[in-house]
Amino acid sequence: EQALTRIFQRFVNSPTHQHLALLDCGLIVADGWLRAAWLGTVRAHGVLSLLNTPMHRTEHLIEGTPTMLVKQSLGWMGVIWSKPVVADLLQHVPMSPQYSQAICQHLRSRLPLCCLLESQVQHVGVPAHSLQRGPFEHGVGFAPGNDTTARILARETEKLILGLMRR
């Protein structure tokens, strides 16, 4: 959380940047992720997740291009943040062990927590033992779009399957 706060502070102090994309090192991206992110950001109200995961409950669907969902909460992976939203968070949400939950709770009273219906990022590289600790955050509707991304996704899926078979 402290690293995130430092990233947020640098972003808010930037004179030129208006949006921040947080892409975790364990993510792969779809070919059209940047266009989908831009179109979604235009329609969202300052925060947009590129990862539609069942781990975060859906409240309702927002028709249009791109189709989006409003969620009860969002994770950190693959989120686009606007400068006004981040400035508000830094001012009103203190650092705590439940920082991500506190951010979602704070934002829900101010704006919809949107994600794209079709995930533009996918979480990969998860060791099989991680699956034994709880649910795995995966992106619904992710389409890799190119051979390299498809090979990475296939390799990581195979690792997960083999890990589950050994349990």
Structure description:
The chain contains six helices and eight strands, in the order αββαββββααββαα. A six-stranded mixed β-sheet has the order 1-6-3-7-5-4. The chain has a two-stranded antiparallel ribbon with strand order 2-8. The protein is α+β, with helices and mostly antiparallel strands and 167 residues long. The protein starts with a helix and ends with a helix. The model has no long low-confidence stretch (mean pLDDT 90).
Instruction: Please compute the radius of gyration using only Cα atoms.
Output: 16 Å
Looking across the biggest beta sheet, what order are the strands in? 1-6-3-7-5-4
The secondary-structure element order is HEEHEEEEHHEEHH
| Number of strand segments | 8
Principal-axes geometry comes out as globular
How much of the sequence lies in strands comes to 15-25%
N- to C-terminal distance: 32 Å
Brief descriptors of the model:
167 residues; 40% helix; single chain; two-stranded antiparallel ribbon; 6 helices
Give a short overview.
The chain is built from 6 helices and 8 strands.
